[in-house]
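User: what does the whole thing look like in 3D?
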Amino acid sequence: MIGRRGTKGAKPVFEFRDIGDPTEPLLVVDDLHTSFRTGRGTVRAVDGVSLTVKAGTTLGIVGESGSGKTVLSRSIMGLLPTRDVIKSGTVHFAGHDLTALEPAQLRQVWGAELSMIFQDPMTALNPVKRIGRQITESLRLHLGMNRAEADATAVELLRSVGIPSPEDRVRWYPFQLSGGMRQRVMIAIALACAPRLVMADEPTTGLDVTVQAQILDLLGELQRERHMAVILVTHDLGVVANRADEIVVMYAGRVVERAPTHTLFANTHMPYTRALMDSIPRLSDPSGVRLQAIAGRPPDLIHPPEGCRFAPRCAYAQDKCRESDPPLRTAGSPDHLFACWFPLVHGTSTAPPAPSSGNGSSSAPPPTSAADTAIDPGAEVQSP
Amino acid sequence: MTKYLIRRFIQLVVVAFIISVLVFLLVHLLPGDPSVTILGPNDTAQNRTILLHQLGLNKPLWNQYTIWLTAVFHGNLGQSYLNHESVTHILATGAPIDIELIVLSQIVAFAVAIPLALVTSRRPNRPLDNVASTGTFGLLAMPPFVIAPIMVAVFAVGLHWFPATGYVPFTKDPAANLHDMVLPALAITAGSIAVYYRLLRSDLISTLQEDFITMARSKGLSNRRIMLRHAFRPSTFSLLAAAGVNIGALLAGTFIVEWLFAISGLGYSLVVSVQQRDYLVVQGISLVVAIAYVFLQFVVDFLFTVVDPRVIRE
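Assistant: Here's the predicted 3D structure for the full assembly of 698 residues, as structure tokens:
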């Protein structure tokens, strides 16, 4: 049913070429919304997200479970089902608007130019297919290789992701491999056709900590070799801290802070980002120190709270935060965006020193000399 | 694998032995004996005793059983008390009919159920799926003794497409044979279609929720290829198990259809010989059917290892 060459019989209705402006980023996501119709109401899982990824760079998308980061990565690819899903916004990839492509056209992009590494290597590989076949099928489909060429390439790919004796392993089934090995296989599959952009959705969540670092280092190495762009989705700021060029922090379906990695860590503006950083356990902490968890849970995305969505959990929240929604804006450096009325400046809140209004946030540090360094919230540039 | 096969063979011998004992006891538990059918109901008690003595039926049960079993090991299944036809001959003429009925009906059942499930499971609860689900539910509710007369009325009596009764051996005239077998096979197939379709559909729907299907989509594979190469095989476990049980039930279990279409396969011979207390025929057919059943389950188990490589490791 499938010809010798993957494309036999089918006219190439659409040939994907890079028609993007080389000075423009590889991926430009603009005001992306994704909602799900459910029995309880409409869940706004991704609510107006804009971001860009330059060729060969790494973007980290960080947020708690339920912040919409997985839905975002699937929306960017266009992998979500069409039924009961409402989408708007555009995703320009190498000059093409992916949201405007037909399914058959998208299939020429998927796997070939834009591929995905899934969260759970235990369930994302087909349990009844040999791993070699799972690699060769995209090679044959997209690159038109014959069986022998594809088999040889699969062995090379497995070798490049560090799987020992790949000549034998191509004939193995996923259940014969450990979790780390399976994740390596998944990377080999994602990289098979040398895509320009790889979306890695929590690629190491299911793995041991020691294996996590190996896998991420491997991904980084292959990325540099092949000059790929990578979107690294994770709940762990520590994972992206020294791997991403830029970081997007998501909360309740929105981008709440976006900055080059160095800037973000040097001068965190959004209290949520700060809280995420504080929740990374540190080896330097003396034993017995309680891990800083963020109190409460992400809001219900059917009925998100009025005003800033993080306000109910924010130690610095003021009345203004609970009343109106802070826009994504810049201050100081133009590539540092944040959505907060009273941003932190070098770890200190710019909120007025009024008594906390029954938020129960007695742990909030006293806003001392904040006024000196405060950014005037009124004179801000709106988000692009 | 060799160990597995040996274990299976021992299992087969044990099951066949148990079945033969049970069948032997059950037929002898039935009231009456073959003398009634041979001599008629009005003969003298003395004549009956002589006959039973000639047939060896006056001996203790265990002795009758060992005599029978010894003969079986010598390849002799005995003969009918009534027409002296050898049991081996009854099996040789009846079994091809049963096998043909089963093979034809199952080919049709799979040929209908599998494509239908592959098409409808992609869009569950849409119009096409609803029609197929309702339709197969209807088929499930119609046993062969309802379907067969309807088909005879429509396709044989009404349209004259197929004969209402009759049987020509396949070796004599393949075309006529198939022509005769269409209606009986279809009468059996309806229930199988419904069961196979529903099981495969629900397994496919749950397989399509799996991460590896999203993964396959993200590789840019076509829907057709995803259904056939990624979703189908991991979805066939229930189908295989059900097919094993279903085909097993059809082994000598097609009496009603054979009777309605006047073709005497093993199912027909078995029921008639039970009625006539034709002990050796009942025992012979039961033994062969039991062995065939165990063998069938063996094939199903083997297919499980083909479908899912993880099974063989256990």
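In plain terms: Residues 87-120 of chain B form the longest helix (34 residues). Residues 87-313 of chain B form a domain with the MetI-like fold fold (CATH 1.10.3720.10).
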